Amino acid sequence: MFWYIIRRLLQGIPVFLGSTFLIFSMVFLVPGNPVLRMFGDRTPSPEQIAALEAKFHLDQPFLVRYFIYLGDVFQGNLGTTYAGQSVNEILARTFPTTLRLALLAVLIQLIVGVLAGLISGLRKGGIFDHAALIVTLLLISIPVFVLAFVAQWFFGIQLGWFRPTVGSGAPWSDLILPAIVLAALNMAYVVRLTRASVIETSQNDFVRMAYGKGLSRRRVIPVHILRNSMIPVTTNLAADFGILIVGATVTEGIFNVPGVGNELFKAINRHDTPEIVSIVTILVIVYVFVNLLIDLLYGVLDPRIRYVK
Amino acid sequence: MRITRIAAAAGGIALASALVLTGCASDNGGTGGGGSSTGVVSVAWGEPENPLIPANTNEVNGGLVLNNMFAGLVYYKADGSWDLDAAESIESDDYKTWTIKLKEGQTFTDGTPVTSSSFVDAWQWAASDPALLNQWWFIDAIAFEGGTYDGGEDTLALDVVDDLTFTVELAQPRADFPVALGYTVFFPLPESFYDDPEAFGDAPVGNGPYKLSEEGWQHGESLNLVPNDDYSGPRKAENGGLNFKVYGTLDAAYADLVSDNVDVIESVPTNSLSNFKSDLGDRAVEQGSAVFQSFTINYNLEHFADDEEGKLRRAALSHAINREEITSVIFQGTRTPAEEFTSPVIAGFDPGAIEGSDVLTYDPELAKELWAQADAISPWEGTFQLAYNADGDHQSWVDATVNSIKNSLGIDAVGLPYPDFAGLRTEVNDRTIKAAFRTGWQFDFPSQANILGALYVTGSGSNDADYSNENFDTLFREGLAAPTLDEQNEFFNQAQGQLFEDLPAIPLWYGSVTAGYSTLVEDVEYGWDSWPILYQVTKAE
After folding, report:
1. A229 CB neighbour count, 10 Å cutoff
2. Which of A59, A260, B296, B326 is 20 to 30 A away from residue A7, measured at CA?
3. From the list B49, B139, B251, which residue is nearest A82 (CB)?
4. Which CATH architecture has domain B289-512?
5. Residue A302 main-chain phi, psi, to 5 deg
6. Which residues, listed in sequence order, are joined to residue B145 by a DSSP beta bridge?
7. Looking at chain A, which residue has its C-alpha nearest residue B223?
């Protein structure tokens, strides 16, 4: 178990190097000099361009810039934006908000999705099963920004149940509406997966055995059926985490959540190489890490799965 | 929401009558720095792209905050006229050497006095570092000590006479120099700035109507200002403070405005332009702004050189564009067709007085004729391309413009998208672009000299067309030195006549402010520069 975790963590190093290199070269390849952007429609003098290029290392060749960046990263410094802010600070400020948003979305998916899937599975072909299918299919077919705008307009502006955008400090109550929108993205998968898995598990011998022993439905459904149905759902949630972060870029923009997605969007607009590379790399690392966590969770859900090496 | 507001109002009335009954109502203009109202006005805002240092702030978000935290020598009124703020007088006999006197008893919010050195040192510091975005302002306008720029600490020809007086020697005589002095870059700096410019950029210390609150600047979320009690100038705060809220998109800010969660926005998002007037009623704002839009063709482009053929083709293009239709259909009336090369909100605007401005009228017949005349000199081949950056809202009007050209002239014309602004500007700057390209200008200070000088004078920084005309240069220089606005305009109008003959850029239209405010605030006005005038906004608590 211990060595398994170590091995997985070590795999993170090439992933980190590869992703930083790829993203760095992608940003580098975008044509255009970010210095000129800073002046708007005005054309700066050659002296000003030279001074600013030197200040941001833009005059160095690609590999030199990449190694300057890597060197800083290994000293724990993720770089400075063109606006002079430390990327460390930006991440420390925005990441908790995005994590809270994603967590809330996962929670909503788990509670609503698994519950709906469970009921659908147990009452296969019933009214609830059909209704859940239609609603979730509808949600999945609507692009996230449409869903977000409609939710903001209807619940935020027309009904006034929620603030249309997230207020200062991003309190949990303001994050509920964006989290529901985010959760709706993947809700259909969670419901369908849970449903299929519950139906399959219910037909197993050990379930019939449990009922035969005289156990109540109350005991059999959560412990025998649900727990054994959760493995595919958990895997899906892990894969889903990536979608949540990507979806967060759009959702955070619309609801003005002061999170990583919002910041990344602004950084891309500014060609802010250190900021873009650092944020995306951190997202990649989070993704790798969450996948590791999920793999370890399998062992808890199904004792037959053990990691030996 | 509604219930709480009625309850609050009722409470307010009860409190007011209690004060009257006990004889405590004060008529003497309120207490402390908060003038006639005490509510904190919230403003939709974006995180500035640079530290908050006057010499390094050239975008609207940082500028708006600095403008409220600092008092320059002069300030601008809504209509673009100017008046003295920190200065007592700004005088010159020859418009080359200016003597500036400061008002007595002014202080920065850290308690130190505002002296002539606060200005002189700030300007010298700014001139010495080319990595500061606004450095060129000083290099351009002010003469150098000893005649040449040495990049050192005291390179500008500025002299401190006494604590409250200093002199400025300009590179060339200009009568409109005081107008420029209200711009952000000319603000003073306290001595504490030089100890740690970086910390200052995070928490500026100014001498204006507002200062940072204790909460200060919460990066990515908000920046909070409270009235500065020690400020005694003409821009006294009429509210209890300003709360600049960071929004990632205009759409999010607009959603908050409609639901009264933010009080003032600077701009309505494009996709709400069709409904913002019905959403906001008389709280919707639409007025002219000091933005000039055009497209420019560099003289190195084949068929558009500085000769007879080039002139004919440029005039043909100008006649081929239906500006009326594009501004009303594509922009829904939020742009107005250009009539000359500056802006209607800038003093001196008088298109009727400019010779040759009829080249802006839509006349496809004439356009075709001029194009044919040019073809007789050297036949046209290929496609006319108009370059733009696809990361702004440009595609629709570029398509409409090239279509107009295509239909009028019967030639192939297409838009040429660049993925982003930096990409477009790089090719423009390197002079490698092989197409016409969109250009625009937002005025820095309300004077025609600002745009004419920056874009069309031989060798000036933003002369993207590489335009060079001796007659224009002379007229512009004489206009700068003309003692009265009327005389100046006479020269500038003649200079514009030359521009119409040569068309280094094809004028398209003027921009507008489209904005609005919430039900909770009053006295909201937008200035000539499109910025809301925040110190005079009132809001009940």
Report:
1. 24
2. A260
3. B49
4. Roll (3.10)
5. -130, 105
6. none
7. A168
Backbone angles phi, psi at B288, to 5 degrees: -65, 155
Q: Which residues of B touch A146 (CB under 8 A)?
A: none
- Nearest-by-Cβ selection for A84 from B51, B259, B426: B51
pLDDT for the residue numbered B469: 94
Residue B45's SS3 state is strand
The tokens for B492 are 């500038």
**Cβ(A222)–Cβ(A207) under 8 Å?**
no
Contact: B462, A42; criterion CB under 8 Å = yes
Can you read off the two tokens belonging to residue B510?
A: 């003027």
Write out the H or E segment, with its range, that includes residue B102.
strand B97-102
Residue whose entry in the numeric block shows the structure tokens 């790829």? A22
Does A253 sit within 8 Å of B249, measured CB to CB? yes
Nearest CB partner across the interface for A164, out of B130, B259, B424: B259
Q: CATH number of the domain at A93-301, please?
A: 1.10.3720.10
Q: What is the ipTM of this complex?
A: 0.79
Domain coordinates in residue numbering, chain B: 289-512
Interface test mutation site (partner B, options A29, A55, A153, A256, max chain B beta carbons within 10 A): A256
Residue A264: closest C-alpha in chain B: B248
Render chain A in DSSP notation, one character per residue.
-HHHHHHHHHHHHHHHHHHHHHHHHHHHHS-S-HHHHTTTTSPPPHHHHHHHHHHTTTTS-HHHHHHHHHHHHHTT---B-TTS-BHHHHHHHHHHHHHHHHHHHHHHIIIIIIHHHHHHHHTTTSHHHHHHHHHHHHHHHS-HHHHHHHHIIIIIIIS-SS-SS--TT--HHHHHHHHHHHHHHHHHHHHHHHHHHHHHHHTSHHHHHHHHTT--HHHIIIIIIIHHHHHHHHHHHHHHHHHHHHHHHHHHHHHT--SHHHHHHHHHHHT-HHHHHHHHHHHHHHHHHHHHHHHHHHHHH-TT-----
**Beta-ladder partners of B505:** B296
- How many contacts, defined by CB atoms under 8 Å, are there between A and B? 150
Q: A252 in contact with B at a CB cutoff of 8 Å? A: yes
Question: In chain B, which residue's Cα lies nearest the Cα of A49?
Answer: B131
Answer whether A90's CB lies under 8 Å from A275's CB: yes
B128-182: pLDDT as tens digits: 888 888 888 887 788 888 777 777 778 889 999 999 999 999 988 888 899 999 9
